[in-house]
């Protein structure tokens, strides 16, 4: 059975989990969501563009595609923000939508791939190092463009936003491996 846990930076259990992170995926579910997956562990050569970037929508087709990607790459660790499980949201409607979308995607991935861990991360944990002169989506996009130039070019705006959030989670995860 896959464990769903929250890992705080510096937590010894977290360090053990990330040391097994080969391959791993980062998920930002929702209408402008994305799944990014890496075949190699985060400790190898970071920052690195993902091997696969898949748009994730609230439709079941996006969940099926995410599940197939995770299964084929042999993803063992899945990263997701805490809103994925419906926490830290501003209102009930947002919470319902996120739980439904996230739950469908997570369920399909857990059914298809043999995950060791689902790592739940507070957005503030990975966004703390981002520039403060823009909103969170713009900050995530600037961060991804700075770390991996050209990664977001050519992607439509909504998909680029989801990719930037998912990449921010993965970048935080990789920094935990290196420290």
Description:
This protein is α/β, with parallel strands linked by helices and 179 residues long. The protein has a single domain, classed as 2-Layer Sandwich (Nucleotidyltransferase, domain 5). The protein is 46% helix and 17% strand. The protein has helices at 12-19, 60-73, 92-112, 123-127, 136-147, 157-178; strands at 3-6, 24-28, 33-38, 52-56, 77-81, 117-121. It has a six-stranded mixed β-sheet, sandwiched between helices. Helix 1 (12-19) packs across helix 6 (157-178). The longest helix has 22 residues, at 157-178. The model has no long low-confidence stretch (mean pLDDT 73).
SSE order? EHEEEHEHEHHH
- Across the major sheet, the strand order is 1-6-5-2-3-4
Q: How many extended strands? A: 6
Corresponding CATH architecture:
2-Layer Sandwich
């Amino acid at each position: 059975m896959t464990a769903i846990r929250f890992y705080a930076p510096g937590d010894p259990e977290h360090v053990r989990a990330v040391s097994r992170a080969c391959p791993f995926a980062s998920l930002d579910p929702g209408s402008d969501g994305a799944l990014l997956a890496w075949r190699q562990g985060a400790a190898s050569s970071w920052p690195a563009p993902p091997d696969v970037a898949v748009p994730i929508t609230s439709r079941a087709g996006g969940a099926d595609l995410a599940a197939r990607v995770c299964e084929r790459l042999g993803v063992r660790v899945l990263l997701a923000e805490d809103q994925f499980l419906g926490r830290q949201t501003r209102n009930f409607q947002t919470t319902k939508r996120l739980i439904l979308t996230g739950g469908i995607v997570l369920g399909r991935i857990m059914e298809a791939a043999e995950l060791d861990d689902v790592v739940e991360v507070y957005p503030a944990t990975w966004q703390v190092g981002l520039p403060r002169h823009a909103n969170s989506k713009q900050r995530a996009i600037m961060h991804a463009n700075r770390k991996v130039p050209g990664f977001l070019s050519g992607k439509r705006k909504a998909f680029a936003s989801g990719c930037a959030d998912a990449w921010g989670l993965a970048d935080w995860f990789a920094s935990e491996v290196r420290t």
